[in-house]
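Re: that backbone. Tokens:
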């Protein structure tokens, strides 16, 4: 038999080595990519067939869903120990496997944390919490009547010591808490029908004000009166100081059914053309009038804007329109800006005075009017937006400034149209927005038409 040459011996060895790497090597890599996942009891023992059935082998990097498990009266976790660290996972949670892993099922007894009435005879079932020992819970708000305020929670009926709502308490077992309240002495604020709505404390050092109210129905709380059943002419507005230390004050409520548009659309009598300049409220007036707007009544507005827009764009538009009119035309300009500048209106006075003088140069018959910033309901705004973007006092302050600097004295440049006081006195309704909510800023069509009509009465005097 012929001997195999050295060349062929080398080739044969390389073939054998290649086969080993391809077949043997691949089996070792495949085995290394597999991970065993085991489930056991709290002692780490695979004690039942259920645990055995849960076990599985997966590829490294795979996500698994931990077995679902629950037991009445207990909170269950799959616990994974890694060195000195312990991790808890809820049954049914997703977990990414990177190596052989063992999960142990821990069951923790649940304890009831209950909240009772002051006399301890009845539980507030909806407030009950379940927690494991060592867990912290947050004490809820204290239930109380309109003539009481909640102080906190005691662990005994009428306990001398208590913890305030919002305090975190460590659960030590089944626990009971009882509310501690205090009677409020002060002014009774009552609903339109006389039912107690809230007691406002008027103790020493306190100067409370009348609150804004969102009735939730679209009806408007105009303010407060010492007489029950009023629908207009409130004695006090939201933000006014409560003048007494005790007594009763009633909501003055203007109903939606009372919000009637004027019978007809009033036309200008003393002017050939009228320009209303403003923001979304001016837009609302134009929308409410629609095709019934007189041909010689024009609207210039920008939604959500104020003085900055008027300086950049609005004034030029107004001036262009005024200049188009003949020199003998009788023109009225009604400015209604400010609702979007309640936080900073310092630039209004000088600029608006200059606007009035300039327009007079283009047409000496141009009469300038400033319509008040009209009412808001801050409680409605808060319900609608989740925060208070405008307040009644802000409206009051800007109107006082506009009236005193632009519309008063021998050198006044504008005639003031106080539609704000008119609406506060005789009623207004907010426009209904999305999901039946009322935003407390914009007006119903009927209210917008009443504003227009009031302005026209002033212009036609």
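Recovered sequence:
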């Amino acid at each position: 038999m012929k001997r195999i040459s050295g060349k062929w011996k080398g080739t044969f060895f390389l073939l054998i080595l290649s086969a080993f790497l391809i077949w043997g090597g691949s089996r070792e890599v495949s085995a290394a990519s597999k991970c065993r996942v085991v489930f056991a009891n709290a002692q780490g023992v695979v004690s039942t067939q259920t645990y055995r059935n849960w076990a599985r082998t997966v590829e490294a990097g795979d996500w698994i869903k931990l077995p679902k498990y629950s037991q009445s009266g207990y909170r269950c976790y799959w616990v994974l120990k890694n060195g000195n660290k312990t991790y808890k996972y809820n049954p049914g949670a997703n977990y990414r496997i990177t190596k052989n892993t063992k999960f142990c099922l821990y069951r923790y007894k649940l304890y009831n944390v209950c909240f009772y009435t002051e006399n301890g005879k009845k539980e507030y079932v909806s407030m009950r919490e379940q927690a494991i020992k060592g867990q912290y819970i947050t004490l809820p708000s204290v239930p109380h009547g309109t003539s009481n305020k909640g102080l906190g929670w005691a662990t005994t009926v009428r306990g001398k010591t208590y913890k305030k709502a919002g305090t975190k308490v460590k659960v030590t077992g089944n626990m009971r808490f009882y509310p501690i309240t205090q009677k409020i002495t002060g002014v009774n604020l009552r609903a339109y029908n006389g039912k107690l709505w809230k007691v406002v404390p008027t103790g020493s050092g306190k100067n409370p004000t009348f609150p804004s109210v969102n009735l939730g129905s679209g009806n408007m709380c105009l303010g407060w009166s010492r007489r029950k059943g009023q629908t207009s002419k409130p004695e006090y507005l939201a933000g006014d100081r409560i003048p007494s230390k005790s007594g009763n004050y009633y909501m003055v409520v203007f109903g939606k059914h009372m919000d009637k548009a004027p019978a007809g659309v009033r036309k200008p009598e003393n002017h050939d053309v009228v320009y209303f300049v403003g923001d979304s409220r001016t837009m609302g007036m134009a929308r409410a009038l629609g095709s019934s707007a007189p041909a010689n009544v024009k609207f210039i507005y920008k939604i959500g804007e104020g003085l900055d827009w008027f300086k950049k764009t609005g004034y030029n538009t107004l001036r262009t329109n005024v200049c188009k009119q003949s020199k003998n035309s009788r023109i009225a300009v009604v400015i209604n800006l400010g609702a979007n500048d309640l936080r900073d209106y310092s630039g209004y006075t000088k600029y608006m005075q200059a606007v009035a003088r300039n327009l007079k140069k283009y047409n000496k018959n141009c009469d300038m009017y400033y319509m008040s910033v009209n009412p808001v309901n801050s409680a409605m705004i808060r319900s609608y937006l989740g925060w208070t973007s405008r307040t009644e006092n802000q409206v009051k302050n800007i109107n006082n400034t506009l009236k005193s600097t632009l519309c008063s004295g021998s050198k006044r440049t504008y005639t003031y149209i106080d539609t704000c006081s008119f609406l506060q006195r005789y009623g207004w309704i907010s426009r209904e927005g999305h999901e039946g909510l009322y935003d407390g800023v914009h007006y119903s069509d009927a209210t917008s038409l009443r504003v227009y009509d009031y302005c026209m009465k002033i212009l036609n005097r």
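The chain has a mean pLDDT of 92. The chain has nine helices and 23 strands.
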